[in-house]
Amino acid sequence: MTSNAQVGSVSEARGPAPVSVLVVEDDATIRRAVQLALERYGYRVAVAADGLSGLEAFREGGHDLLILDVMLPELDGIGLCHRIREESPVPVLMMSARGDALDVVAGLEAGADDYVIKPVDTAVIVARIRALLRRATFRPDREGRAPKKSDRAPDHVLTFGDLTVDTLGMEVRRAGEPVSLTPTELRLLLEFAAAPGSVLDRRRLLREVWDYGWEGDTRVVDLCVLRLRKKIGSGRIETVRGFGYKLVRG
Q1: Would you state the torsion angle of the CA atoms of residues 123, 102, 201, 224, taken in this order, to the nearest 10 degrees?
Q2: Are residues 105 and 78 in contact, defined by beta-carbon separation less than 8 angstroms?
Q3: DSSP 121
């Protein structure tokens, strides 16, 4: 685990109260290194050494973001992420000791928002945390990401077939029933809703949703689209082979 002093403090990320991060990692050296590094950046850090302890710490509440290792005793990171997703949309960053595609895919399918491969520079972890927290606090009426035709109240409720997206209330309903989305899934849907019928390529989605300023792993996009489809309807987002995805209008 390496560090980079150039990134600076992030204690202001959520205002005066420090951001709380739960790190679940069985390797004591890595766990301590991540904890000390994040504390230097202004985070409040809790740690757990195995999956069951991590689940207990998560259920105690108060954490803004979780960092989970894939290989954990008692309950592995994939199983832990599944359990967490049954209860909460809290941002989850997975860590894997290998660049194993199966680990990455399994973590994303379990509901993780992003992942990093160990060994990883502390600056990279901090950048990913910042991006995840921006998604978690994202409001399109403040940032100008959602379409707005006028100030009339109905215009912030977008309708696509049986799907409605309230861009001010940040609520999604399908056939009148509320749809529970993670912050990443919600921001991805808002990106599609801002340009219905238009094909959005994976690089654009990585840049706008995941805040990647570099060529990131497009599997992150593909797996998040897959999860989103399961929640809003498999035919609502079409794949345009060789180009990307688009939201179906009707």
Answers
A1: -80
A2: no
A3: B
pTM recorded for the entire structure:
0.76
Number of helices and strands in the chain (H, E): 9, 13
Residue 10 tokens read as 């992030």
Q: Can you tell me the distance from the alpha carbon of 218 to that of 232, in angstroms, rounded to the nearest whole number?
A: 21
CA pair distance 63, 211, nearest whole angstrom = 22
Task: Compute the average pLDDT of residues 9-29.
Answer: 74
Eight-class DSSP state of 149? S
> Residue 243 is which amino acid?
F
Report the Cα–Cα distance between both ends of the chain, in Å, rounded: 49
Greater pLDDT, 135 or 114: 114
- pLDDT band (50, 70, 90) for residue 137: confident
Backbone angles phi, psi at 13, to 5 degrees: -55, -35
Tell how strand 20-24 and strand 65-69 pair up: parallel
Place of tokens 């309807």: 233
What's the rounded Cα separation, in Å, for the pair 50 and 179? 31
How far apart, in whole angstroms, are the C-alpha atoms of residue 85 and residue 82?
A: 5
> Encoding tokens for residue 224?
């998040």
* Residues 193-219 pLDDT 10s: 999 999 999 999 998 888 876 556 788
CA distances from 239 to 45, 143, 179, 206, 210 (A): 40, 28, 22, 16, 19
pLDDT digits (tens, 9 = 90+) for 42-68: 999 999 999 999 999 999 988 999 999
pLDDT, greater one: 164 or 8 = 164
Q: Is the dihedral of CA 214, 137, 14, 94 positive or negative?
A: negative
